[in-house]
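U., I forgot to send this yesterday:
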Amino acid sequence: MDLNMEFDSKEILKRDKISRIPDIEEKYRSYILILYPDSTIYDYDEVINLIKGDCKKYAFITHEPESNETKKHTHVVLYFDSARYVKGLEKKWGIPYYYFQLPLTFRGCCRYLTHIDYPEKIQYNIHSSLQSPILLFMNIINCSNTSKYNKEY
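Result:
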């Protein structure tokens, strides 16, 4: 599957070792997204601003294309204090529900933002590339005792 293309139907969801598809009838505390700055489905800048306003604990980073990728994309990791329905986020942010994925581990998804565990990929500096309102994410990425965030939500 080519992940460079924007998702235009739920049949082309990303399925890999760090995420799974949410059940639209369930609430979850954490989600991950891949957004494209040149999207025609949603307003990228508006979505980023809504995320910053609605979610206290988030991290995102824009990756350059690699290997079979053809365009820049932004990885977003979200953690809410209280669980949210994906349909509610879809309605509020204007992102189709099939863009939302659930992290298998919150810590693993945060670490993926900088490719710290993927030496074959472009390495990103956490201090200059990662946007986050709190330092919690830097602690999650670097700490070894993160069992609180390693469970599924």
